[in-house]
Specification:
Layout lengths: L1 H19 L3 E6 L2 E6 H43 L1
Antiparallel strand pairs: 1-2
């Protein structure tokens, strides 16, 4: 139930933000230029940051799990000797 209330609050905040920031802005990246709503540009920037953060934490966690497995295997082989 708390999660549903949280989602509803986020949707309301996004709707308010979008209506108040609907003016078009020009976005340039290298030679590519386009115009879009400020709300869309901010939302896509936020979304790309979240995706990059999730991917980075996944790969860091994956490498740590591999390292921990290797250390456990090394300790097990050292204990067998």
């Amino acid at each position: 139930m708390r999660f549903l209330v949280f989602i509803i609050c986020v949707v309301i905040l996004v709707a308010i933000f979008s209506t108040q920031n609907s003016q078009p802005v020009s976005v340039s990246l290298f030679t590519w230029t386009f115009q879009a709503s400020l709300a869309i540009v901010v939302f896509l920037s936020l979304l790309s940051g979240v995706v990059i953060g999730v991917l980075a934490s996944f790969f860091i966690g994956f490498s740590q799990r591999r390292k921990n497995k290797k250390m456990a295997k090394d300790e097990q082989t050292a204990g067998d000797e």
